[in-house]
Amino acid sequence: YTWPSPQLDALETVRFNQEGFNAGGLAALIQPCTAYIFGGPNTGRSDAADWIRTAYHDMATYNKSDGTGGMDASIRFIEEQERPENAGNGFDNTVIAMNSQINRYVSIADSLALAAIVAIENCGGPEIAFRGGRSDAGEPNAPGVPLPEQSLETHIAAFARQGFTPTEMIGLVACGHTFGGVQHDAFPDIVGELDDPTSIDDVAHFDSTFVTFDNAIATEYISGTTRSPLIVGANDTTNSDKQIFSSDGNTTILSFATSAEVYTSTCADLFARMLDTVPAGVELTEVITPLPIKPSSVEFVMNQDTMELSGQVRLWNTTEDPSLIVQLQWSDHLGETHTTGPLGFLGTSSSTGGKYSAVWYTFNSSSIHLDPAAGVRSLSFLINGVLEDQNGLGFAVQDAFMISSTSCQIENPPSGRIDVAVRNGVNVTRLYLEEMTTDNVGRPIVVELDITPPASPVAANPAYTVWSMNLTDPNALYGIGAQIGGVNYSTTDQHRFVEFEVC
Ligand code: HEM
User: Fold this and answer.
1) Measured torsion, CA atoms of residues 92, 95, 98, 101, in degrees rounded to the nearest 10
2) Among 209, 240, 275, where does a domain finish?
3) How far is ligand 1, taken at its centre, from the CA of residue 174, in Å?
4) For residue 218, is it within any domain?
5) Dihedral class, residue 485 (left if φ above 0, else alpha if ψ from -120 to 50, else beta)
6) What is the distance in A from the centroid of ligand 1 to the CA of 65?
7) Where in the numbering of this chain does the Plant heme peroxidase family profile domain appear (predicted)?
8) Per the domain annotation, does 13 fall within a domain?
9) ipTM of this predicted complex?
């Protein structure tokens, strides 16, 4: 995709900035893969397993014939979690852990899909194609998750309703059950008390490598060494994995046991399809791939007569190299191009279990001197002298409106003013503050507060005019939005009035 795209930029960040500098923090929660939110590593439970099961159970309500259900984060509703088909506490664990990842561009359902992907990829699994754009349900879906005691025919019908053939059913179950196991508390009729001090919840695992993605679930089944409670459980009625794996005469599961590659590539496809199963009407984005050069946190501030620009740039698939010279170029509204000196190195990040690494550089007002009248139209970068400008497009930035450092606070009682500098000559049809909040069912929303144009123009400098808004909530965080030529733009930077000087 082409930068900037606020939604794709945000989703790409969660997907690919997993560890190290600017990391979103998702991967750290399952580092190591034995990590468990309530009790630390090596408890017999794992967050990775919970995250994958949560995604399946959120999706499993899908009804292909009417387009209802699917990945829409309806699993977060207590009413769904209390159903027998959702026994266990892994769903709540997952939803809580994902809270920090959600924002106006990353829905709760997207965060659940990302959780499953990060768990699979970081714990030995293949890369999974990720699309974003799921929307969050406002209420629970109809029930629809298979239960172990149901018949094979019922399981086949349930997977058909979810959009999967009988062969794909075998695949999806074998792919999911490479992680985790069955807890005594949730399924006392399947797993008894284990009397094992290393297993806090008495979990009987599906295979011997229960925190790692691999085909042991299939090899152990074929070799007869499996101890899975859903294959060799004492009560044959609840041996659903046995019924499912043997439903085609063991053909599919044998192909997984024989070839780790077949298993891995089948799972990569099936997991992606599972996560992309969304209610009718929801349009997912393209598959998100990492941008080779990605500006980040790009922010303008109008500081009296000076326009300040700061930000970061990430170079993908690169390791730290002191000899690398990264420079920023910007073109202005007068058609001139300017070049900075070498940018400062910030750090490295990695993703996909360390498979990819990236390096980060910073630019800020100490090295960039902007003339407000000339402004900035777009950015590009020189990497060891080689121009990176998105194939000639440049990295477009919006300098028509920005926070002004004349914003200020009144201490007692707390109130304040947000000032926005608006470029003269630009037809800004609406200017507003954007307050990030959630609706009554926890969905991220943006509340827009219109700023009235000044009755008589207040000049920030010859090129910009100040629009102001008085506010009273010292904790509220505001971005700035503007409508220009029928298009809405938002700043990525957000501000509280208390960060400014006293009025
Ligand atoms: C007929 C279909 C299925 C049945 C009957 C079934 C049944 C179960 C049961 C009874 C548990 C134990 C849960 C607990 O004790 O907390 C479980 C765990 C799990 N299931 Fe399934 N499952 C099915 C399909 C799937 C699929 C398609 C996936 C994913 C693609 C999946 C992923 C998982 C995972 C990762 C766990 C481990 C959770 C943990 O250890 O915390 N399951 N399943």
Assistant:
1) -150
2) 275
3) 10
4) yes
5) left
6) 24
7) 106-314
8) no
9) 0.99
